[in-house]
Amino acid sequence: MNGISSLPVTTSYDYDAPLSEAGDITSKYLAIRTQIERLTGIPNLYPLPPANVKIAYGTLKLRSLGTLVSLLNLVSSMERVISKRTQSFENLNWPYGTVLYEVRVPFSAGKYILKISGLKDLAYVMVDGQLQGALMDTKKQELSMNVQLSDNSTLQILVENLGRQNFGYIDKKGILGNVTLSGTVLTNWVHYRISIEALFNTAYSYIPATGRKGFSSTLFTPTIYNADFLLGNSIEDTFFYPKGWGKGQLYLNGYNVGRYWPKLGPQLTLYVPKNMLKQGNNRAIVLEYENPGQCVDQYETVCAVEFIDFPLLSKSVLSNKQMERRLEKRKHSPGQSDKKKRKVITLDVAVPAGG
User: Which H or E element spans position 327?
Assistant: First the structure.
């Protein structure tokens, strides 16, 4: 977020800089170098360094561990906080990431109007663990939607911090006002501070492979996916490409790589420096909020992502067909300048214990 108008900025650290996010020289760097030489009359005597090696590791299949709510005891790393009213992220001492707000609703079954005051920034609304819809801060004081309850339901609101203002004023996150159902203020909330990184310290035998099979909801409920994969001696930079996925967060070997939102764009890939990878076993975990891509079954329990050797930062510039042609061209016929610095490796996927 940037400035009073809350406009989004790209996750990439590139920003059209003279050096790319991967540390490579760009045309802007060359133009600056040439201009300095022209103005000073001093020739450039030092050779330019070669571009860093990038590897297109290929396709990685991830398996669903379960919905975030079903894994709450594993991803809520700190003690839950109980209070009469909803608390901000700051009051919870949780400045980044996500918080799950939960409350028991002693209402009879039926349709109700949910209203949230002071939402910052994005909320996924669930009833008894099933997604009902999403609300996003639009500078309105109060946001509303219809929800369908069963008798004595549990209402869960997963709130995501999309980024803070970088100047000007205090930018609190979370649910800053009341939450009401058809005019009744809901009280006695339980707050869970979500830490996906906690899963890197969890043995696979303790994780239920619940997936989404048999879920009654037709809407996608925020779900955690993972995969273990083996790498040999060739460890180099790469780019994570969640082709067809909706919106989420990537974690690799305990590192929070970043947020992806290809549907919104323009950035489609995340830069993965080689120091986030290692020889031998690696672990990838993805928290997908909206909809996974490249799934091989109707219940979306096994879905694929890709690791390619170049960034895609301009969705608005290239159409989907143009991007597909570019990907295929680089896979099968790399350019002359790429041949010495580009490698393609098929990921060796290790099946998690109990899978």
Answer: helix 320-332
C-alpha distances out from residue 240 to 54, 83, 230, 259, 265, Å: 12, 40, 16, 11, 14
pLDDT in tens, 81-117: 999 999 999 999 998 899 999 999 999 999 999 999 9
Assign residue 97 a region (left: φ > 0; alpha: ψ between -120 and 50; beta: otherwise): left
The two three-digit tokens of residue 254, written as one number: 């305990």
pTM of the complete model beyond 0.90: no
Q: What are the backbone angles phi and psi of residue 116, rounded to the nearest 5°?
A: -120, 125
Ordered domains of the chain (ranges, CATH): 13-51 (no CATH), 58-67+197-332 (2.60.120.260), 85-187 (2.60.120.260)
CA distance 300 to 210: 11
N-to-C CA span, the chain: 40
Please calculate the CA angle 332-338-344 and round it to the nearest 5 degrees: 50
Cα-based distances in Å from 245 to 191, 199, 318: 28, 21, 18
How far apart are the C-alpha atoms of 10 and 315, rounded to whole Å? Answer: 12
Dump pLDDT digits (tens) for 197-245: 888 876 554 455 444 443 444 568 899 999 999 999 889 999 999 999 9
Residues present in the chain in total: 355
Q: Which H or E element spans position 117?
A: strand 110-117
Q: How far is it, in rounded angstroms, from Cα 285 to Cα 200?
A: 9
Q: Give the model confidence (pLDDT) of 170-202 as tens digits.
A: 789 999 999 999 999 999 999 999 999 888 876
Q: How far apart are CA 251 and CA 197, in angstroms?
A: 7
